[in-house]
Amino acid sequence: MLLEALYHVPRDKWAYAYDTETIHLRVRTKKDDVDCVVALTGDKYDWEHTYFEVMMEKAATDDCFDYWECAVRPKYKRLCYTFRLSTGPESIYLLDNGTRYECPPPPIHYFEFPYIHEIDLFKVPAWAKEAVFYQIMPDRFAKGNPSIDPDGTEPWGGIPKLDNFFGGDLQGVLDHLDDLLELGINAIYFTPVFVSPSNHKYDIVDYKRVDPHFGDNALLKRLVEECHSKGIRVMLDAVFNHCSDKFPPFEDVLKNGENSEYRDWFHINSFPAEVVEGIPTYDTFGFFSNMPKFNTANSEVKNYLLEVAEYWIREIKVDGWRLDVANEVDHHFWRDFRKVVKSANPDAYIVGEVWSDSLTWLLGDQFDSVMNYPFSGTVLEFFNGGISSGTFGNRIGALLMRYPQQTNEVVFNLLSSHDTPRLLTCLGEDKRRLKLAVVFLFTFMGTPCIYYGDEMGLTGYEDPDCRKCMEWNPDKQDRELYDFYRIMIALRKKNNALREGRFRILQAYDDDSCIVYERADEVIHFTIWMNNTPEPRTLSHPMETDDWQDSLTGEPVIPQDGIMNIPLDPYGYRILCRTL
What we know:
Layout lengths: L14 E3 L5 E8 L5 E7 L4 H4 L1 E4 L1 E5 L3 E8 L6 E9 L2 E6 L2 E3 L10 E3 L12 H5 L2 E4 L1 H4 L28 H6 L1 H7 L3 E4 L3 E2 L10 E5 L6 H13 L3 E6 L9 H9 L18 E2 L2 E2 L18 H16 L5 E4 L7 H14 L4 E4 L16 E2 L2 H11 L5 H12 L4 H4 L3 E3 L8 H4 L4 H13 L3 E5 L27 H16 L2 H4 L1 E6 L6 E7 L3 E8 L5 E6 L5 E3 L5 E2 L5 E6 L4 E7 L1
């Protein structure tokens, strides 16, 4: 065994309380280097009567390492433990102070999980596990009240530009809620709805008022109430990293400079606040001078923004916040943000926009989830033919090992958004590839999100092309694609195994793009078969039972001599299941 590859620490994603009675343990070993790992566990105050061994499962693999995992239910909510790793006749013990070939008597040098404190438990909203989100940009989704259109509103369906408007509003969303219900949606994520001069509203002027071109606060409240009556949750977009240069406190800084009472609300590097040779003298989002960055360490700023966060949760009854540019705001602010929001609604869902490894924010004191762009990048690369199924499986395994299980169950998985090209465009406008990617989205762990119009076949490159108007003309909608989305959403919502069940790669190749994987819980076992190649293929895998059926048609699918053989069309898939 390569001892340098062994890794475990008694915290974070390696040892954590999943619920009030269960501790999850993980350990890392060199890839294909260890045959089995056993957790030796007990209570440090009564080892003799509480000792038991737990066989760990190889839960994931990446390019370099294997990851082993087990769940332990200690008798007294505390745990003392070590690991025995074996390869052939060789065994070694991994302890808190290193490795040994002989196991010392407990508890000295053993790892410890001192106690499962319920107050420290990372609890995520249970409803987010059941959610299928739909992302809406209000200006581009539906026009419901033309009388409130901005000046210069262009005809619906025109070419999107960085600065043009099409008149979509909240009434338009209200008018189409039943369409979302028909699709199967039970949660909506709105990009910002507050007063702003732009079409996207990420440069906010008034955080306490709905933009009048969308409606008003009363209309948003009625929309939320109507959504709730139909079983749909609502998440708003919080832009707390920066504001508009038309935000009144910043206008005061522009006017009064160093004498402004709001000078410390922002990061002013030199006065006057202006743009010098293309670079603002104050910190901004990127280098956009119209988006000055808040100083969220300032108590007045913090109190103002936290009051905003609480108001829309408590008074308008929204169900959560998506946090724009979340990684550029200080952790102290987000810790206080979580306390305020969860106090207003313990079931509120908090999703940060972080485009890379986000464990720092996902330890129970800040966010419930993040926008999982590493997931979308990996999925799109694979179904575009850029990597083999072996590499894909390794990268997906690495993503699963980034976070604790409760985060994996509600991480915000998306394949396109207002910040990326459209899904169909990303996949070369090949619907077969798109369907494979969507099947993976809805059969993988996490909370899936659809970007408005992807289900109808909208295309588009980078912003602003990806922000086209929703297509409501039935003759221009791809209804076959819509029906496919509807079927996949229904399959996921019907089966807990596709939401919380274990995920394992069954078959992947270093030189091929076909893959077989499974999702399973105590009730039902799914296997998903994908031919991500332009040629017909037959995939085979051992199956011990003959009670399988096609999940979408109900047709029995019988293995031959213990081997399941599944013929697939080019870029074809099949989803099988059996009841346990």
